[in-house]
């Protein structure tokens, strides 16, 4: 059975397709290619909010869209962070990248497990997670841009915001784990490899 292609779903698919474009522009050896990569990243980030808003407003939510939306977000962020780390390797950026990507993997696994036991709503997206996403997307866009803009050192400001995003990332992960702890700490006879 084919998935109905709605505008919200097309926006989500566009975010996935933006990932190789960001990568290509990032490595393209022409003037302003990095800034073009930042613009594509920003447009893709905007669709993160827009696709969900439109899907709810127009009642065009789908299971495939609900699956693909967080995957697209995580891939866009992870690939962009790896690109930034490749460009300017350093211990602090490597730690921040590991924290952000590691948290996404851990929380995704937690949500999947909670869904299996029927308590997925206990780890629904929180305001802290949304705040973290806002800082993260802004920081990455500024770091991708790299050049000074209107006298502002965007890369440096973005790096500072990424540190804030990493702190929020840890706080939101702890909040999700606390919400899930009653289910995680139950002692049962079932074991998994």
Descriptive overview:
The protein is an all-alpha fold and 193 residues long. It has 6 helices and no strands. The longest helix has 31 residues, at 154-184. The protein has one domain (7-180): Four Helix Bundle (Hemerythrin (Met), subunit A). The mean pLDDT is 87. The chain has helices at residues 7-27, 33-57, 63-87, 91-116, 127-145, 154-184. Helix 1 runs parallel beside helix 3 (63-87), helix 2 runs antiparallel to helix 5 (127-145) and helix 3 (63-87) runs antiparallel to helix 4 (91-116).
The helix content is over 70%
- Our Rg estimate from Cα atoms comes to 18 Å
As residue ranges, the low-confidence spans are none
Shape: globular
Number of strand segments: 0
State the end-to-end CA separation: 34 Å
How many strands, what sense, and barrel or not for the largest sheet? Answer: none
What's the quick description here?
It contains six helices and no strands. With 193 residues, it is mostly helical. The chain has one domain: CDP-alcohol phosphotransferase transmembrane (TM) domain (Four Helix Bundle (Hemerythrin (Met), subunit A)).
For the structure shown, list the relevant keywords.
193 residues; mainly alpha; Four Helix Bundle (Hemerythrin (Met), subunit A); globular
Strands, helices and their partners?
Blueprint: H1 7-27, H2 33-57, H3 63-87, H4 91-116, H5 127-145, H6 154-184
Helix pairs in contact: 1-2, 1-3, 2-5, 3-4, 3-5, 4-6, 5-6
